[in-house]
């Protein structure tokens, strides 16, 4: 990282509502803390598979808790996540592989749009309860994020290329190498070593480790 900034990598997948919470908080802090925030689109399915982790919806008690937890977190973090039991089932049947490849293609070409594009995927899936796995849905998200139809078309073509598939796979493997077993996985490079934080509720701890002040989820 340049100019004494702490590099902070955020490994995320738009299928994960907790990733959205962590993403928004880090976006708010990227100019408050001395950090160089790097978005690292990865594939949660690959991480779950590699580590033997199971989606929360597979455990009824955990699912029950998660529905309440996300409602409370949405309010506290001021992120418009809306959740119902159906959403947790949708997480299991709808793959975000296409969306994450599309985001990866953008990361390789026009990374300045990563923040708005990722946000629109979460908005569509976790706020509007709409599909993000079909091609039309992905193009609709790109439009919402302000991408030109030429760029969106180009990214769509790139999405099925070996270069993009490999890049997504490599990023996912990198998250695993840091010790990730779920998302969001936040890695702060401080004192020449990587520090892994799991979940959106460990950012206060992240602040403490890198010597920054925690000012709540919405720093003014």
TrEMBL record:
The keyword Cytoplasm does not apply. It catalyses: RX + glutathione = an S-substituted glutathione + a halide anion + H(+). Keywords: Transferase. Its EC number is 2.5.1.18. GO terms for cellular component: mitochondrion; peroxisome. GO terms for biological process: glutathione metabolic process. The keyword Transferase applies. The lineage of its organism: Eukaryota, Metazoa, Chordata, Craniata, Vertebrata. Belongs to the GST superfamily. Kappa family. PANTHER family: GLUTATHIONE S-TRANSFERASE KAPPA, GLUTATHIONE S-TRANSFERASE KAPPA 1. Residues 8-210 form the DSBA-like thioredoxin domain. This is Glutathione S-transferase kappa 1. Transmembrane segments: none annotated. It comes from the Eukaryota. GO terms for molecular function: glutathione peroxidase activity; glutathione transferase activity. The active site is at residue 16.
């Amino acid at each position: 990282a340049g100019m004494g900034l702490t590099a902070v990598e955020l490994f995320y997948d738009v299928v994960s509502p907790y990733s959205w919470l962590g993403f928004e908080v880090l976006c708010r802090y990227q100019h408050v803390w001395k950090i160089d925030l790097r978005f690292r689109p990865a594939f949660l399915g690959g991480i779950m598979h590699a580590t033997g982790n199971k989606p929360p919806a597979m455990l009824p008690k955990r699912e029950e808790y998660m529905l309440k937890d996300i409602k409370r977190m949405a309010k506290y973090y001021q992120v418009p996540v809306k959740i119902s039991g159906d959403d947790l089932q949708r997480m299991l049947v709808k793959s975000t592989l296409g969306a994450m490849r599309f985001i990866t293609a953008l990361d390789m070409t026009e990374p300045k749009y990563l923040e708005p594009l990722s946000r629109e995927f979460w908005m569509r899936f976790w706020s509007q309860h709409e599909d993000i796995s079909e091609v039309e849905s992905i193009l609709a998200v790109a439009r919402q994020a302000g991408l030109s139809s030429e760029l969106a078309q180009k990214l769509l073509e790139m999405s099925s290329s070996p270069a993009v598939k490999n890049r997504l796979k490599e990023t996912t493997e990198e998250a695993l190498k840091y010790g990730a077993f779920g998302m969001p996985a936040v890695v702060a490079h401080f004192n020449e070593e990587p520090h892994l934080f799991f979940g959106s509720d460990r950012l206060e701890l992240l602040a403490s480790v890198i010597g920054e002040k925690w000012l709540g989820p919405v720093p003014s």
